Amino acid sequence: MDPLISPLALALERQVGYPQKLVDTIGHPVMWFGKLIGFCDTRLNTSARTPAQRKLAGVVALGLLLLSVLIVTTGIRTILSWLPLGWLLEMLLATVFLAQKELGRAVAAVADALRTSLAAGREAVSHVVGRDPATLDEPGVARAAIETLAESTSDGVVAPWFFLLLLGLPGIALYKAVNTADSMVGHLNDRYRDYGWAAARLDDVLNWIPARFTAVLVTAACFFVPGASPGKAWAIARRDARKHDSPNAGWPEAAFAGALNFRLGGPRSYDGELVDLPAFGDGRSGLGPSDIMLALLLYRRTLDVLLVVSAFVALIMLVS
């Protein structure tokens, strides 16, 4: 793989994103993954199967998804390798699997809406979180947006970049396929506890390094955000990350909480059921639109640090 692919993909996607006209015309690869995942779910995850059979069906479905993605992306990469500037086209395709621009836009929209009214804030945050927005007050909406921003910095940006760096276009596409499968079927309810086991466990494995590296990047970014504390970012991440049920999600969330002296997490409602989740950080929990914007500043500086790291790695690869 050309070493310039990962830094150029980061730089380009951050500015351009995935055009809405393409979404309207042909959809998005993650949507295509979702259709295949849904197709397998409907046909393989039936109530007639035993728990063991459902678990095996989930392994088979995940295998089919990954094999399909691997065949297509490896074929595309092989064809592009025959072209004089094929690596540039691979870079363009890789940007599809990064989410820097859209994540920042969606979270900023929550801050803008919340300045208008609580109802508008609830509506805006409903597009980025899975919890019940109707139960949230203004601080709850702000915390939900910031928590999503923190977690998605890892699985929407850092992890895809990591697998792009390691394995090129097939790597980033395979990661997004697993992450999409986990978001759709990796739930601990009666329908998906067994069927979604393989997707959830593989997603945990793939995100182990990126989640911790995200906490490191957030810590470094604190040096470029007025009032942010790099010491507290890393200390709170190390102290509180393990509280999360996920082995990975707590790292970026706790790092953001420590960096900005926020208190994130805590009880929340999903489908009408109150879930008691751990809190991260020791700071303020009464957050508002200005705090969302501060978190977005930390997010952007984190992306800056990631781009510098990516460029440095590319430089090492070029001269070695």
TrEMBL record:
Compartments, record wording: Cell membrane
Main subcellular location of this protein, as a coarse class: membrane
Annotated transmembrane regions: 56-76, 158-178, 302-319
Origin: domain of life: Bacteria
Name of the protein described by the UniProt record: Cobalamin biosynthesis protein CobD
Molecular function GO labels: ABC-type vitamin B12 transporter activity; threonine-phosphate decarboxylase activity
Membrane topology: Multi-pass membrane protein
Record key words, sorted: Cell membrane, Cobalamin biosynthesis, Membrane, Transmembrane, Transmembrane helix
Organism the protein comes from: Devosia lucknowensis
